[in-house]
C-alpha cells in the first residue's frame, strides 16, 4: 500500500535527556531540512498556524520539530491532529514533549513513540560518557525559589527557569489561582500571568 502521509514521532523525556539532540541528529542523518517551532511561546498556535499549514505540505524532505507540544491548548491539539493527518509524504513531524499524558489520545495514536531517559538513571559508565560528549542542547532547567516580586520574576526568566513551574509556584494558594490557570489554558503567557499575580500582591499590600 502506498504511503500517503509522512511519519510522526512523539519524543518523550525530562529536561536535559537529549531530546533536542536526538531530533537534530535524526534530521541530519536523513539529510532533510529541519524546521523548528516553539510551542511554549505560542500555546494556542495562533502565530504559527498558517505557517505550519504550509510547511507540512511542502514537497521538500523536511522534519517539522514542534518543541514543547505538551504545553499547547486543547484547541491547538485539535489543529495539530489535522496537521498530522494532512502532512505530505515528504514531511516528518516530531512532537517534543516532557509529559506524554498531556497529549490527546488521537495524537498519540498517530505517532511513533520514543522515550528518552534522564542522566540520573544512567550507569556510572554512561554518566562519564554523557559528561564528555553531551551537547549544548542537553540543557537542564535550573530549580528556582518562588519569586515574591517582579525583580525576582525577571531574574528567574533570565536564568532559564521553566515558566509554567514558576507560574504554578506563584499561583499556589493565591486568590487569583483559579483565574490564572484558566487564562493559561487559553494560551496566555505564563510569565505575564505570574507578573499579574505578583502585581496584585503589591496592590493588596
TrEMBL record:
GO molecular function: ATP binding; ATP hydrolysis activity
Protein name: ATPase AAA-type core domain-containing protein
Organism: viral metagenome
Stretches assigned to the ATPase AAA-type core domain: 10-111
Pfam families to which the protein is assigned, alphabetical: AAA (PF00004)
Amino acid at each position: 500500500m502506498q504511503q500517503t502521509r509522512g511519519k510522526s514521532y512523539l519524543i518523550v523525556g525530562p529536561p536535559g535527556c537529549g531530546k533536542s539532540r536526538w531530533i537534530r541528529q535524526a534530521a541530519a542523518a536523513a539529510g532533510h531540512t529541519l524546521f523548528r517551532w516553539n510551542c511554549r511561546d505560542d500555546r494556542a498556535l495562533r502565530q504559527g498556524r498558517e505557517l505550519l499549514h504550509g510547511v507540512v505540505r511542502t514537497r521538500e524532505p523536511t522534519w517539522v520539530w514542534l518543541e514543547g507540544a505538551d504545553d499547547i491548548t486543547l484547541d491547538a491539539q485539535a489543529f495539530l491532529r489535522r496537521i498530522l493527518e494532512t502532512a505530505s509524504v515528504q514531511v516528518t513531524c516530531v512532537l517534543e514533549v516532557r509529559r506524554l499524558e498531556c497529549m490527546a489520545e488521537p495524537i498519540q495514536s498517530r505517532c511513533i513513540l520514543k522515550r528518552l531517559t534522564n542522566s540520573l538513571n544512567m550507569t556510572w559508565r554512561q554518566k562519564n560518557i554523557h559528561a564528555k560528549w553531551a551537547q549544548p542542547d542537553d540543557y537542564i532547567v535550573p530549580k528556582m525559589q518562588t519569586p515574591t516580586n517582579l525583580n525576582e520574576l525577571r531574574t528567574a526568566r533570565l536564568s532559564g527557569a521553566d515558566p509554567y513551574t514558576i507560574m504554578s509556584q506563584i499561583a499556589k494558594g493565591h486568590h487569583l489561582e483559579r483565574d490564572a490557570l484558566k487564562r493559561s489554558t487559553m494560551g496566555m503567557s505564563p510569565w505575564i500571568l505570574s507578573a499579574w499575580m505578583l502585581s496584585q500582591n503589591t496592590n493588596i499590600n
